[in-house]
Amino acid sequence: MNAQDAQTALHDIRRLQDKTRDELARQLFSLPYMALMAVGLFIGYASSDLPGSWDDVAVVLGFGLFIGVVVVQHLRMCRASVRPRFLWVPERLELVFYLSWAASPLVFFLVARWVAEALGLPATDTLAAAVTALAYVAATPLFRGIVKSIMQRQDGRG
Amino acid sequence: MDPSFDEFLHVPARLSIVALLAPAGWVDFGFLRDTIETSDSALSKQVSALAGAGYVSVRKTQDNGTRRTHVQLTPEGREAFQRHAAALERIVEAARTPVERVTAPDARTR
């Protein structure tokens, strides 16, 4: 075994590990599911602009759709061709990401609404909800990239 | 030769399988076959060899009437893979001149 062969083997190892991580990240943040979740977020957050008891209906429908898609996505991952290797004790950085990811729609929405109000735009909740939904879908590659980095760290940890 | 270098694992097809399995839990046989671009029989032979060595475990399931085979790295397999990758890194590192070692930071296997 010479150094050149060892280097080639290491390149192959990294390339193949990346393929698995790509597949896992793609399945975790599947675009159709992310789009459905974004629709749920839009309906839920835009509900405040609806009259009468329609806002309650929209909140249940929107956030119900969001949670429903999360559950379906989780069940789908349990039967996927490549399944994640769950580690029981996440590092602090991983925990920060998962909490940030969960909180990101609300943060997007509050910032977008504040900007819409500052600009004196009408139907601020609907506008902010639309911005939140679009931002959520647009952030899919970012979420995938972060999850891949987390998986790399986990692999390094064994 | 580095004592952690694993001749059995260094067979390209076996190393490819183990590298693909390392970041994941259970992995579908079809994903391995398509990614490595090999045949069912060739992959099956290597998976059986790895299972015989205790490096992977194999599970067969029925999914809507379709028979599916899943493969997973065992803790022993994971440890052997990490030892082997570390041995490869040491071989590469040992071949570098002192100047290269200073200028080129080591890209460690993840």
Notes on the structure:
The complex is a heterodimer of chains A (158) and B (110). Chain A is built from six helices and one strand, in the order αααβααα. Chain A is 80% helix and 2% strand. Chain A is mainly α. The longest helix of chain A has 27 residues, at 92-118. In chain A, helix 2 packs antiparallel against helix 5 (124-138). Chain B has one domain (12-103): Winged helix-like DNA-binding domain superfamily/Winged helix DNA-binding domain (Arc Repressor Mutant, subunit A, Orthogonal Bundle), CATH 1.10.10.10. Chain B has helices spanning 12-21, 29-36, 40-52, 75-95, 98-103, and strands at 24-28, 56-63, 66-73. In chain B, strands 1-3-2 form a three-stranded antiparallel beta sheet. The longest helix of chain B is centred in the C-terminal third of the chain and has 21 residues, at 75-95. The chains are: A mainly alpha (158), B alpha+beta (110). Chain A binds chain B through residues 1-3, 6-7, 9-10, 12-14, 16-17, 19-21, 23-24, 79-86, 151-152, 154-156, 158, and chain B through 1, 5, 10, 12, 15-16, 19-28, 30-31, 35, 63, 78-79, 82, 85, 88-89, 91-92, 94-96, 108-110. Strand 1 of chain A pairs antiparallel with strand 1 (24-28) of chain B, so a sheet runs across the interface.
What's the layout of helices and strands?
The complex is a heterodimer of chains A (158) and B (110).
Chain A: H1 3-28, H2 31-46, H3 54-77, E1 82-84, H4 92-118, H5 124-138, H6 140-157
Helix pairs in contact in A: 1-6, 2-3, 2-5, 4-5
Chain B: H1 12-21, E1 24-28, H2 29-36, H3 40-52, E2 56-63, E3 66-73, H4 75-95, H5 98-103
Antiparallel strand pairs in B: 1-3, 2-3
